[in-house]
């Protein structure tokens, strides 16, 4: 059994919890995010998605689940692990899966997605997740060599509308068109939406904000009480 098969079989049908805090927030600390990841494991998560080299390294040390790592950097449209340098650093920090922008947009270092993935495979053993915004993105990412694709950027790359909930149509399109696993991610805020994403064909489901971002969750409640 290959490493890819082992990792993705362990994720099949399960919940990946995205443990991220935004810069300047009280929880923006590697120790805090690692504790959040440990709490997610206790709740039955099968994987963790984390941002930033310090967070990835500490979670890799303390959490024995596959980790999808990324590095958000820059103010350009492409900012999720935007260059080969970022991707190599994420792999070096300990992420079993490196998540990067998998859209067809120009990358800051001038490399194509295919060139980036080829170099990453040559220099590391990490698997690769392409965060996509459309079916065309996902098809191009699979052709470039991605091990899995995510719907992370649906509604953010200009090709599909930003919905209040998950883009179930896109999940279904990708699952029906590609042979690599599709990871549902983006605006999945309830257990019912997570289950719907799985029914649409998702190999696994990522939930972040609704589990790990108390500022946003609090605002949902305060907003409801203010109506």
From TrEMBL:
It catalyses: an N-acyl-D-glucosamine 6-phosphate = an N-acyl-D-mannosamine 6-phosphate. Gene3D superfamilies: Aldolase class I. GO terms for biological process: carbohydrate metabolic process; N-acetylmannosamine catabolic process; N-acetylneuraminate catabolic process. Its EC number is 5.1.3.9. Pathway: Amino-sugar metabolism; N-acetylneuraminate degradation; D-fructose 6-phosphate from N-acetylneuraminate: step 3/5. Pfam families: NanE. One of its GO terms (molecular function) is N-acylglucosamine-6-phosphate 2-epimerase activity. Keywords: Carbohydrate metabolism, Isomerase. SUPFAM superfamilies: Ribulose-phoshate binding barrel. GO terms for cellular component: cytosol. InterPro entries: Aldolase_TIM, NanE, RibuloseP-bd_barrel. Belongs to the NanE family. PANTHER family: N-ACETYLMANNOSAMINE-6-PHOSPHATE 2-EPIMERASE-RELATED (PTHR36204:SF1). Converts N-acetylmannosamine-6-phosphate (ManNAc-6-P) to N-acetylglucosamine-6-phosphate (GlcNAc-6-P). This is Putative N-acetylmannosamine-6-phosphate 2-epimerase. It comes from Spelaeicoccus albus.
